[in-house]
Design brief:
The complex is a heterodimer. Chain A is α/β, with parallel strands linked by helices. Chain A contains 9 helices and 10 strands. Chain A has a domain of 67 residues. The longest helix of chain A has 18 residues. By secondary structure, chain B is mainly α. Chain B is built from 9 helices and no strands. Chain B is elongated. Classes of the chains: A alpha/beta, B mainly alpha. At the A-B interface, helix 2, strand 6 and helix 3 of A face helix 4 and helix 5 of B. The complex binds adenosine-5'-triphosphate and magnesium ion.
Amino acid sequence: MTGRSVVIEFKDIYKSFGKKEVLCGLDLAIYKGETLVILGRSGCGKSVTLKILLGLIYPDQGQVFINNTEITALSEKSLMPIRRRMGMLFQGSALFDSLTIGENVAFALTEHSDLTAGEIETIVAKNLSFVELSGTQNMMPSELSGGMKKRVALARAMAFQPDILLYDEPTTGLDPITATTINALIRKTQLEFGVTSIVVTHELDSGFSVADRIAVMDDGRILEIGDVESIQNSKNEFVQTFIAGPK
Amino acid sequence: MTRRLNKENIAQFLINVHGLGEMFGRSLFLAFIKPFYLRDILFQMYSIGVKSLSIVILTSTFTGLVLALEFGHEMAVYGAKMYTGSVLSVALVRELGPVIISLVVAGRVGAGITAELGSMAVTEQIDAMRALGTNPYKKLASTRFISLTVMLPILVAIGDMCGMIGGWLVSVTSLGISSDFYWSLTVQYLFFPDLFSGLLKPFIFGMTIATVACYLGFNATGGTRGVGEATTRSVVLSSILIFTLDFLITKLTLGAI
Ligand SMILES: Nc1ncnc2c1ncn2[C@@H]1O[C@H](COP(=O)(O)OP(=O)(O)OP(=O)(O)O)[C@@H](O)[C@H]1O
Ligand SMILES: [Mg+2]
């Protein structure tokens, strides 16, 4: 891993909601082009971590750097261009339910590019075929299954060709076959576009199959980080229990 | 079950006042900043204005009908039945038109906006919009703010007309007033201050309904149930503000002009 450049860096992040401490002293660095999987129990603050990275939530303390820019010091307005370089697949897909699938995927392009309607249509069609949902342009999100929604959300997140993709539980609640399709898509996205990805999950199989490195999170900080093998052979009790399941 | 006025309630109240002020400021300011989202604004104007027409026409016509009956009946006692039209038009234009129609719109449109934006908030669609680099205050709140502020005065003007037509129907059919006399009195006693106050009110109420509806929608939490509660609160808060502001505007404009 040496010599690789750091794209994202969390430094000593603290965040509480009311009296509830969610993150306390989170440190994490992500290298260019890698897929980092964050494993952790439900409610341990994984989604909050991703939202802090997008600037959707401000930490109480600590800094976040993206390509050496401290985003925690930026205003909402100056965050906008940085967010356009990132794509996020939300835990519940968060498709705009008043827009068609095509309009959802086209959203960022319609909003922030000078492309013509025809050019946008071409990109939308290409992205939908990438996630194997060609021809669904005119359907509404309510007509899709959960797995299809996740794939549309991925197509939407990719539309602006981001350098960083964030996946919040991309396979949770899906059958194993659909989950495998999505894992393959995550891999394919990384290989074809060279994006840096963070995948948040509490599903081990999914995590192990897409990860270059794995970070295990507990008590609001990173407990252990390393490649798949080193995590599987970890001496840490929590990590072992998490991987093997409670005895 | 009295709600105690403790520190937390006061803090929450101040947070809400601040939040409403901030939502108002952002919606207004962003209305003058690019991009203008003309398509979204036109769509909102259609769904706010055109789709409210039938309920506005219905309420205001019946208000006119009933008022004419009541006024006619009461004024006959003083032998002033002929003046029903003038009293009716002033009451409608200054007071009843703006307030009743704004309340109807707060119930129909304000509730709808809070429900829609609230569902978007709890399903992370508003976060998703921000993540895609778009300002939701601009795209969602400001467009609705502009549309309501423009459409409500128009709806009120239409409602005033319908109310007068309702009054005319009753005057001609059951009060024995001639059509010409009714309309000439109606117009004769409507002065500029009446029209001014009558259109200033819906203009301000439109901003009020939009601000309240967007603020409560954006800040809805706690799933579907939270959205339901926010929707109810939106109608209640808008109504309270409409009555309060109505009193203030009336007080100010009566003396000033
Ligand atoms: N906007 C918020 N307001 C208040 N509390 C919040 C908010 N967002 C998250 N929390 C709290 O922070 C904690 C961590 O939430 P988070 O969504 O990050 O969990 P998670 O690790 O993603 O869990 P899951 O795997 O179930 O999605 C939870 O206890 C949650 O209640
Ligand atoms: Mg989560």
